[in-house]
Amino acid sequence: MTNTAVETNNLFTGASYLESLDDGREVWFDGERIRNVTTHPAFRNAARSVARLYDALHDNNTRDTLTTVDEFGHRTHHFFKPSYSAGELGQARDAIAVWQRMTYGWMGRTPDYKAAFMAQLAEGHAFYGEYADNALAWYKRAASTCLFMNHVLIDPPVDRGKARAEVRDVYVTVNREDDRGIYVSGAKMVATGSALTHATFVAVNSGVAARMQVGRDEDMALVFITDMNAPGLKLISRPSYELNARSPFDAPLASRFDENDAVIIFDNAFVPWENVLIYRDVERTAGFYAGSGFFNRFNLQSAVRLAIKLEFCIGLMLRGTAASGTTEFRGVQAAVGELVGMRDMLWGMTTAMVTDPEPGIGRSVLPKIQVAAASRIFGTNAWDRVRAVFETILAGAPSFTVSSVADLEQPELTDIINQYFRGTDTPAPQRLKLFKLIWDALYSEFAGRHALYERNYAGNQEQQRLDALRFAEMRGDADRYRALVDQCMADYDNSGWRVEHLRQP
Question: Count of domains in the chain?
Answer without folding.
Answer: 2
